[in-house]
Amino acid sequence: MCRSADLDRALCYDGSAKTLNWACFSAVREAIGRGSEMARCEEGYLCEVCGQDVEDIAQSDLYLRYVIGLVDPEVLHTARERHIRCNPTLAQFIVDPEFEPVCVTGPFDKRTLDPAYVRQREILVTRGWQRLRELRGKEVSLLDYPLPEVRAAWQVRAL
Ligand SMILES: [Zn+2]
Questions:
Q1: pLDDT at 132
Q2: Would you say the pTM of this structure is higher than 0.85?
Q3: Are 157 and 149 in contact (CB under 8 A)?
Q4: Are 13 and 28 in contact (CB under 8 A)?
Q5: 3-state SS string over 38-82?
Q6: What's the pLDDT at 98?
Q7: 4-11 vs 22-33: helix axis angle to the nearest 10?
Q8: Which of 38, 44, 45, 55 is the most buried (most CB within 10 A)?
Q9: How far is the centre of ligand 1, averaged over its atoms, from the C-alpha of 48 (Å)?
Q10: How far is the CA of 24 from the centre of ligand 1 (A)?
């Protein structure tokens, strides 16, 4: 990761946190929120669809997309937050007994899509969601959140 040092600085400029993780990230956003960028960062906590707080990393659509490689670390701190369930076109691919299934009606309904694509997507998105649950309350660097293949792809890209 060529820009990991920048990311560390950007998120932990106050030097208070040892590792970048969900708690640290929230704390830093809070710190930023008290400054000049208050409006934007306060909104950063809230789901842009339903307006409610995204309280838990395992509810976060932003972090789900991050761990499966759809969001780059550089844009994490500026991207808008959403609940996983408030983004049904992605949430429908989570297949886990612990996750109440989400159904989509309309053109993105997985029942109308190519089964091979759907299967592939289900495996990836479900693993991403399980990874989020695994990360809850853990001291893991933000850069180590994503699935191994996502981190490996970053390595290749940085070369
Ligand atoms: Zn929501």
A1: 97
A2: no
A3: no
A4: yes
A5: HHHHHHCCEECCCCCECCCHHHEHHHHHHHCCCCCHHHHCCCCEC
A6: 96
A7: 60
A8: 44
A9: 7
A10: 22
Tokens 């842009």 correspond to 48
How far, in Å, CA of 76 to CA of 63, rounded?
8
The residue ranges of every structural domain in the chain are 46-158
Predicted confidence at residue 2, as pLDDT, reads: 29
* Structure confidence at residue 122 (pLDDT): 98
Q: According to DSSP H, which parts of the chain are helical? A: 4-11, 22-33, 38-43, 61-67, 73-76, 88-91, 115-135, 148-158
Task: Tell me how far the alpha carbon of residue 49 lies from the centroid of ligand 1, in angstroms.
Answer: 5
Residue 12: the pLDDT is 34
Q: Tell me which residues have their CB within 5 A of the ion that is ligand 1.
A: 47, 49-50, 83, 86
The pLDDT score that the predictor gives to residue 28 is: 54
- Residue closest to 129 by CA, chosen among 62, 77, 78: 62
Q: Are 102 and 94 in contact (CB under 8 A)?
A: yes
